[in-house]
Amino acid sequence: MFSELLMWGSITTEDEKGYVLNKFAIQLATYFLCELTREELTNKSNVNTQYETLAAVGHHFSNFANWQEDAAPNRVKEALDCLVYIGFLRVTKVDATSDQRDNYGFRDKSILLIELKLETFGVDEDN
Predict the structure, then answer these.
(1) Predicted local confidence at residue 127, as pLDDT
(2) E strands of 24-95, at which residues?
(3) Nearest of 92, 86, 85, 90 to residue 111 by alpha carbon
(4) DSSP string for the chain
(5) Which strands make up the sheet holding 47-51, listed edge to edge?
(6) pLDDT digits (tens, 9 = 90+) for 110-124
(7) What are the residues whose beta carbons fall under 8 Å from the beta carbon of 61, sequence distance 6 or more?
């Protein structure tokens, strides 16, 4: 999976002004992979993670990366868009249930559901 991320990081965009995956997108993908449990990775099926906002994704990533400040929501959105483009994940907004608001403290009526697409992205029978 990491080699496929690095491959996308070396492919230039259609306008040839950058790369399909920038450094931050690769770092964010690495964060999502590191958050997987052994069981989730072994099952090789899609894994869902919930966040309240883009800022929450940036905050959790920044804690993981030990950054002084949180990653900006616009950078997170750009990185997520790139990762959606290559098929690494899918991002949808879903309505938060009362259980999610009570148990996770989500304040918003909708949340981000980030689905890592392990079934289709870089997972083969040998990994």
Answers:
(1) 43
(2) 47-51, 89-95
(3) 92
(4) -HHHHHHHHHSBPTTSSSBSS-HHHHHHHHHHHHTS-HHHHHHTS-EEEEES-HHHHHHHHHHHHT-SSPPPHHHHHHHHHHHHHTTSEEEEEEEPPHHHHHHH---SSEEEEEEE-TTTSS--TT-
(5) 47-51, 110-116, 89-95
(6) 788 999 998 888 655
(7) 27, 28, 31, 71, 76
User: What does residue 104 show for φ and ψ, rounded to 5 degrees?
Assistant: -110, -5
Only one residue has tokens 């931050």, namely: 24
Q: The pTM is what? A: 0.83
CB-CB neighbours of 40 under 10 Å? 15
pLDDT at 21: 93
105 torsion bin: left (phi>0), alpha (psi -120 to 50), beta (else): left
